[in-house]
Amino acid sequence: MATRVRLNTPIGDLDQVLLDQVVAGAVELLRDEIAQFGAAGALRTAAVAVERLWATRMRTDDDRVLRRALGYPTDVAVDDVAFTNIVASRAADLLTEAIAGHCPEAGLPMDHRDWHRLFNLVGVLVHLLGRRDQARAGVSSDGHADASDRDLPFYAERYTADIRLTHDARHGRTLLSTSEFNVAPRVEHDDGLFVSWTDVMRERLQASRKSPLHQHATRAALAADATLASAFGTGFDEIFAVLTATADWDTESEVAEVRVVELVEAVRRWSGLRPDRLLRAVDLLTLHSGIAARITISEPSPALGERLSGRPLLQVPGRPADLLVMPRRVARAGELFLARVQVAGLPWPDAPDEVVRAFKHWEQCEQRAFEANVEREATAPNRILIPRLKKERAAKWGIAIPGEIDLIVIDVDHRRVFVIEAKAGHVATDIERVLYDIIDYHGAPASGHARWEGFRPQRGAPYLLKLRAKANAVKDQLDVLLHEHGVDAGPDGWCVIEMVVTPAPVPAAYVPQPGVPFATIDCLSQILAAPATPAPGPHVGYDLTPQPEDGR
After folding, report:
1. pLDDT per residue as tens digits for the range 317-361
2. Residue 164's CB: how many other CB atoms inside 10 A?
3. Any idea what DSSP says for residue 105?
4. For site-directed labelling of 288, which of 166, 431, 440, 549 has its Cα 20 to 30 A away?
5. pTM for this model (two decimals)
6. What is the DSSP pairing of strand 313-315 with strand 322-325?
């Protein structure tokens, strides 16, 4: 069993049962070990270890990003370190959550040797959980299905690498740029004045370069924030103010112990925001023992707002008025929080219906704004763009299409037409999201793993099936479309290419038969300018090297 897990080979039914038992045994062992230690000392030891880990990770991450941004070569070892840091961070979070939720009030003191012994155990558990969750979801992470076609093939390593390279490229541009527009609260002025999230969003409304679609999205964001504040007693201004202040908190060592009232007053003096709303924000950003106790290490991660990644302030056990502040861990949590908010993601589960509706409307507006971004990136001389083509408008030209087309690009120079589906969305970081993404685009197989059964009637028609129908309609009526837009060269010699454009890499591109090119918006203009037809599969950043059909 251990050999099968280590070699990443397909897991059968018997192995699945054994793996479940190994995971359950490891979780029980961890609980027994943690129960020996007193909560207050153990949590402080955990906080110090987590902060040291993030000091190392941020230093190596920034070094890697800057080297790539400046054009210096990097080797495989650099990516290996990045992967090791990601796994270590995950293990550290899980162990800290377990300590916060399950250590008794009184017990043995925990030193750093105890921490590292438990940390190594959780590191093994993280690997086992990954293998178990892939098997449960019916996903083969090495890209190969077994003989019975039980597993959905997925090239996990390349997907992870492309996500990291995309992040590095964007982060590198931010580090090298002095004019990057950032919607995070910031202290950039010599006088140290606070600039709120609301101020930045209103500034975006006034930006002349923004289209009406962007303005609609911004207004929807402000409305969602107001609805959130009404329901939760605090909003993004207060949440980001607390995150910004604690990420820059002075510490004599790695961790600071701060009274809640002192933290609220410090943020109030700097930001001028209401103390009652700041107190509520602190509460939403604190990992209380009761919340940590609900986290089950062997089950899928809860929502961002219910785990350490979204609640980076630790309540001192037995002293609810005191907090442990880990500045570097808070800084990373702030980045995740901002990334979630920028795509209209609601960090907390079980929000009132009016909040869910407001965020859903905001998400829909952000989708339209992303379509406008795709249109902007596609604009160039000798290209004709037809954005957001609805059935009614196409009918006026004598063209029948089965549904709205996000963007048609007529490339006169290379005699080709791109039919583009623009999909904004979240980055898939767990195997459940990977499964949803692959089946959303490609559909569930007709038979195979029992896990797929529930997706067939629930997920609707696959995205690529609908995109292909639209592209075929364009192909069948290409002469009418070209004539309508002043291109009288005749339809012969033209090709129609369907393509998906997303903000970041999506798992659906990393399967043996991706079907169509999947491009991130960063490289769209290069793909459209290149004379070669893009191959099916992922196209990320500035790498325009054609990929084989199997996506490897």
Report:
1. 999 999 999 999 999 999 989 988 988 988 888 899 999 999 999
2. 18
3. S
4. 431
5. 0.85
6. antiparallel
Q: Are 372 and 218 in contact (CB under 8 A)?
A: no
pLDDT in tens, 477-493: 999 999 999 887 676 78
Count of all residues that appear for the chain in the document: 552
Structure tokens belonging to residue 26: 């490891």
Q: Could you tell me the two tokens for 358?
A: 């407001």
In the block, which residue shows the tokens 């990334």? Answer: 339
Which runs of consecutive H residues, i.e. helices, occur in 188-305? Answer: 197-206, 212-232, 236-247, 260-271, 275-284, 289-293
Nearest-angstrom CA–CA distance, 468 and 448: 25
User: Given the DSSP bridges, would you call strands 286-287 and 313-315 parallel, antiparallel or unpaired?
Assistant: parallel
Residue 99 scores a pLDDT above 70: yes
Burial class (CB in 10 A: 0-12, 13-18, 19+), 387: middle
**Parallel, antiparallel, or unpaired for β 322-325 and 256-259?**
antiparallel
Q: Which residue has the tokens 């083969």?
A: 140
Say how far apart CA 501 and CA 523 lie, in whole Å: 9
User: d(Cα 546, Cα 511) in Å, to the nearest integer?
Assistant: 16
Contact 351, 231 (CB under 8 A): yes
